[in-house]
Structure formats: structure tokens, C-alpha cells
Design brief:
TIM Barrel, eight-stranded parallel beta barrel, alpha/beta, single chain, binds 1,3-dihydroxyacetonephosphate
Amino acid sequence: MRTPLVAANWKMHGTQAFARQLLADLEKGFASSSCSAQVLICPPFPYLSLVGDVAGETVALGAQNLSEQKNGAFTGEVSAEMLLDCGASYVLVGHSERRSLYGESDELVAKKFAVAKSSGLIPVLCIGESLEEREAGKTLEVVAGQLNAIASQGLESPWQDTVIAYEPVWAIGTGKTATPEQAQEVHRFIREQLGEAGVSTQILYGGSVKADNAVELFAQPDIDGALVGGASLKAEEFVSICCAAD
Ligand code: 13P
């Protein structure tokens, strides 16, 4: 059995005051509910320690990115070691915004993935197709290519202690969610690509997940939770999504 996991990607939102308030509201929301999903919060870098200190025991802490370098003269970069030092145990790798806005290639994403694994961070590998790719019938080909870029690194057991997030680019921040059937088809395909390890790998869906569409997405057999952007900034909405994953 795979434990459901709901991850919050705060992206570049908030202030310390906002983060503290959101965490307090989340704590209240979780206290008055009885949901047992695993919860992961990925705040911006400067707030990692704050979230780790406040939410430490009840939620896991993740970063939104990491450097492919170990350490050294790389101005503006943040290493895996620093993330671990701040209490993070997860890191998003290859989010579509990193790929499309910051030019992260499959090759760079694979390097970051390898650094995360070797340092002991659990990578949340984000993959997914653009609208043009879906309309051209290339969804599965694109997703397979993104997985192969990782698999071809020659890592030992790349899919063990790894989370995959399927985030169709056209569904991110657009209010257009993949239908449960569209998402399930790709999740099943991803699981098949992972081989034996796929049986226990958590595969999350991301892209305009809200309280009112979470239940039917989570009802699909290969959807193990969600990676949530916008709705993770609203405590009530996020708690409802977490509880829907139970
Ligand atoms: P939204 O939930 O805002 O569509 O963002 C999804 C996402 O990119 C999570 O990583």
C-alpha cells in the first residue's frame, strides 16, 4: 500500500508573516480534522527554517530547487547539503517552471536528481507535457523521454525513495485540471515505466488541484496524492485536499 502524499509548492509567494499565519491556520485545520495523509511543504528557500521550526514534526519539509553542484563559487545557488542542514528531506526537481522559464534541460534535471539522491534528499521529479504536445498525441512519448533522461544516468535504483509528480503544463495555474481519466492514463503509464520499483513509488498529480476536484482525482488507482500550487496558499482549501487523499 502506498501512503497518500499531498505536497504544497508555495512557489515565490508570501512573507515571513504570511508563512507564520498560514502555518498557524493549517495547524488549526489539521487539529480539527482526522486526516492521515503525509503532508509536505515546499516554501521558498528563505523560509525553509521557519517552516521547519514551526511545522517540524507534523509535516515534512522540502525545497523547490537545488544546485547540481556540491559546493563552491556558484553565486545564488543552493546546495543539497544546505537544504539538509535547514531540515529539508525532499526537493522538487525539474518543475515545469524551472524547465520553461529557466531553461533547465532534461540533462540538467537529471544531474540535479542524481545530486539529490546521493545526498539523501528525496527528489520529487516533476514531469509533464505541454498543450501542443498533448494535442499532437505525444503525451506518453514526452513523459517517457523525461523519465529516460533520469534512468539513463546509470543510478542504482533511481525510483526507490523517489516521488514522481505528473504535472501537465497546460493545467498548471490555469484552472484547467486534467480529467481523472486523463491523469490516470498517464499515471498508469508512468508506473509501468518504473518497473518493479513503481509498485511502491508515490505518483502525485499536479495542475489546478482544488478541494472540489481532489476527491475524484484521488479515487483513481494510480494517483497517490497531489502537488498543489495556488490552493496550497489557502489553509482551508489545502487541509480539505489533504483530507481528500486519505
Ligand atoms: P497550481 O496548483 O497552481 O496549478 O500549480 C501546480 C504546480 O505547479 C505545483 O507544483
